[in-house]
Design brief:
This protein has 698 residues and is an alpha/beta fold. It contains 25 helices and 22 strands. Among the domains are: 99 residues, OB fold (Dihydrolipoamide Acetyltransferase, E2P); 154 residues, 3-Layer(aba) Sandwich (Rossmann fold); 159 residues, 3-Layer(aba) Sandwich (Rossmann fold). It binds adenosine-5'-diphosphate and magnesium ion. Adenosine-5'-diphosphate binds next to helix 12. InterPro entries: ATP-dep_DNA_helicase_RecG, DEAD/DEAH_box_helicase_dom, Helicase_ATP-bd, Helicase_C-like, NA-bd_OB-fold, P-loop_NTPase, RecG/Mfd, RecG_dom3_C. Belongs to the helicase family. RecG subfamily. This is ATP-dependent DNA helicase RecG.
């Protein structure tokens, strides 16, 4: 039977049931069913001695004899209690229902195998309503020892498609197709890593004979799953490198040299130099660059972006930076306009609020090539925005843009511009590997010299007054402070109210005219936001009350305190981004995390992590462990994470192995034409036709 056939070909599956399995679990073909894996197993391979039982044991199997049976009165009715003993100790078996019938059928002092969920109460163990069988009977039967338990839904259970049914379907299917299941890896890989054969892995993942076999089967299937994703990504990267031509920036000319010699306001850090070298190597290679630049907040990505753009301009091209918000775009614009102020360079800003007249002028100078650098927001993606010859597109804080938008910038040219994606959200290496495996990655892992670490503390709401006192002292020293309130989309109205209440109480605590307060939130018009931001940037206000709109990018070096209200409601990466807003000047800066007393264990871990480290990568690792990969910013659209059996966090070692193996295979045989790779090639082709994951990563 062909595995692509619908599951109605399997004995016992009617059209009705097939429809239900499809709508509830997405299972359509035999192959889908075969790859629908149990999430746990009932392990009947192990027998426990009674004295080995632990209070946290779940389901256990014990051999022993019943020595006594009695009926015990309780609040309502009674329960039947049997004393069950083995050589090591004794426990109880308990029944609430069918007591009479059970009492009559129990055989005293005869060996039984009992199995069930273990309870522990008042120092003694019991199993309510155990499954039991006489040892003499047990020995006669062929045992299925580890039973798979499959994910299910309420609707399936209500429609009578129980776990037992699914088990039977898969058993039937395996019987029909086992001999025909094709290997998908090469002999070499299987030998090298001592992997189980594919068909045995599938058999054992559903019906394992032992824990060891199960572990081997899972390992094989995880490896395979990760290997093919990596093979796909690595191959895509290689193809892009060789097939997609990129502009060659081989001249280091006037703009770059002049800036480097005369206008660079500081020495580059070693990390900045290294990253720049990596970028220049790409740009000179003739291949198309598609690079991710990771660097924590404040690590100095802007200057790298500028130098890269100057290189493009020296080679006769235009350059652009796209940022996710107006505030951030104008900040980039201001920084870059200032840095290049004494050079003969035209730089413009294009956002949603650019006036029509200005907009037209920008369109024109862009098309005739006199405009060299254009910085902006989504507005850059409009059809009217046509570059004469865009050489490089730099995208800041990329997790805010969907993948589709990235390629929209790309489509503007017949030859795609080089792409540099900058992100301040540190992505743990293994995750980056699985989500961005087709990009090259550069990391700025060093902060500019002289930065003082932001002192971070956690305070409860009840200490608010001493926090305010501290803020007053800082303001008296001429510093500025941020007060941030959470904004969580589901309850926008409530959050808005929190913010406004907060603003009012702050206004009372910090009265005008002595104190001036800015307020910025998501409901304001961009122009109003900008006005309030500017007042704070210019130092006209000392306090900025805001929702997370300030999360991205604003740079006010004089601000030295970040107070985060309801800090327990923020995610780790948000907290880290927010903290990055201070500590930009020469002064000691502070981050104060305010929370209520009620903290979930996870919230506690988040707050503790923040007070203990400022290393963005460490914070990202904790975040990944707490929330799982699907919730890490920027990974949501990525189908790579809808894995069937592997887990990019827990199985990161297998992931690295799978990636290296994929690189190795493609290195030796780029087109997978060699005889030994015939299975791999077949499997890859098949997967790219059928799997949902693939369309997501491409
Ligand atoms: P981010 O990576 O968060 O975008 P920026 O590019 O905004 O960081 O840089 C943060 C601050 O550090 C800016 O004020 C910038 O001028 C400064 N800076 C960047 N690189 C250096 C360096 N090598 N030495 C000193 N200051 C630097
Ligand atoms: Mg930045």
């Amino acid at each position: 039977m062909n595995l692509d056939y619908p599951i109605t070909y399997i004995k016992g599956i009617s059209v009705q049931r097939a429809t239900l399995l499809y709508t509830e679990l997405g299972i359509k073909t035999c192959n889908d069913l075969l790859n629908f894996f149990p999430f746990r197993y009932i392990d009947k391979t192990r027998f426990y001695q009674i004295n080995e039982l632990q209070p946290n044991s779940s389901e256990v199997q014990v051999v022993g004899k019943i020595t006594q049976v009695k009926s015990v009165a309780q609040k309502r009715g009674s329960r039947l209690v049997a004393t069950f003993q083995d050589a090591s100790g004794s426990m109880e078996l308990i029944w609430f229902k069918g007591q009479k019938w059970i009492k009559d059928s129990l055989k005293m002092n005869t060996p039984y195998v009992v199995y069930g969920k273990l309870n522990y109460y008042n120092g003694s163990y019991s199993i309510p309503h155990p499954e039991m069988e006489l040892v003499t009977e047990y020995k006669k039967k062929l045992q299925t020892k580890m039973q798979p338990v499959y994910p299910s839904t309420e609707k399936l259970a209500n429609s009578g498609i129980s776990n037992k049914f699914i088990r039977t379907y898969i058993q039937n299917l395996l019987q029909q197709v086992y001999d025909g299941i094709q290997e998908s890896l090469s002999v070499e890989i299987i030998d090298n890593f001592k992997l189980m054969q594919k068909r045995d892995a599938l058999l054992n993942v559903h019906f394992p004979k032992s824990q060891e076999n199960l572990a081997k089967a899972q390992y094989r299937l995880k490896f395979e799953e990760l290997f093919f994703i990596q093979l796909h990504l690595v191959r895509k990267k290689l193809i892009n490198k060789t097939k997609i031509k990129g502009f060659v920036f081989d001249t280091v000319g006037n703009n770059f040299n002049n800036f480097y010699k005369n206008h660079l306001p500081f020495d580059l850090t070693n990390a900045q130099k290294r990253v720049l070298k990596e970028i220049r190597k790409d740009l000179g290679s003739g291949a198309h660059m598609n690079r991710l630049l990771q660097g924590d907040v404040g690590s100095g990505k802007t200057i790298v972006a500028l130098l890269t753009m100057l290189l493009a301009i020296d080679n006769g091209f235009q350059a652009t930076i796209m940022a996710p918000t107006e505030i951030l775009a104008s900040q980039h614009f201001n920084a870059i306009a200032e840095l290049t102020h004494d050079m003969m360079l035209t730089v413009e800003l294009l956002t949603g609020s650019t006036k029509t007249k200005k907009r037209r002028a920008i369109h024109e100078s862009l098309e005739n090539g006199t405009l060299k650098i254009l910085i902006g927001t989504h507005a850059l993606l409009e059809d009217k925005v046509k570059f004469q010859n865009l050489g490089i597109a730099i995208i800041d804080e990329q997790h805010r843009f969907g993948v589709a938008q990235r390629s929209k910038l790309w489509m503007k040219n017949t030859i795609p511009p080089h792409i540099l994606v900058m992100t301040a959200t540190p992505i743990p290496r293994t995750l980056a590997m699985s989500v961005y495996g087709d990009l090259d990655i550069s990391i700025i892992d060093e902060l500019p010299p002289g930065r003082k670490e932001v002192k971070t503390v956690h305070r409860f709401d009840s200490n608010r007054l001493s926090v305010f006192k501290f803020l007053k002292d800082e303001i008296a020293k001429g510093r500025q402070v941020y007060l941030v309130y959470p904004l969580i989309q589901e309850s926008e109205a409530m959050d808005y109210k929190d913010l406004m209440d907060g603003y009012e109480s702050i206004s009372r605590e910090f009265p005008s005219p002595k104190y001036q307060i800015s307020i910025v939130h998501g409901k304001m018009k961009p122009a109003d936001k900008e006005y309030e931001m500017q007042r704070f940037v210019k130092g006209e206000t000392q306090i900025m009350v805001a929702t997370t709109v300030i999360e991205v990018g604003v740079n006010v070096p004089n601000a030295s305190v970040m107070v985060i209200e309801s800090a327990e409601r923020f995610g780790l990466s948000q907290l880290h981004q927010l903290r990055g807003r201070v500590g930009r000047g020469a002064d000691q800066s502070y981050c104060i995390l305010l929370s209520s007393f009620k903290l979930s264990p996870e919230a506690k871990t988040r707050l503790k992590t923040m007070t203990e480290t400022s290393d963005g990568f460490k914070i990202a690792e904790v975040d990944l462990k707490l929330r799982g990969p699907g919730n890490i910013m920027g990974t949501q659209q990525s189908g790579v994470l809808n894995l069937k059996i592997a887990d990019v966090v827990k199985d990161s070692q297998i992931l690295v192995l799978a990636r290296n193996t994929a690189i190795d295979v493609l290195h030796k045989d780029p087109n997978l034409n060699a005889k030994e790779n015939i299975f791999i090639n077949k499997a890859l082709t098949k997967m790219s036709k059928t799997s949902k994951i693939w369309s997501n990563i491409s």
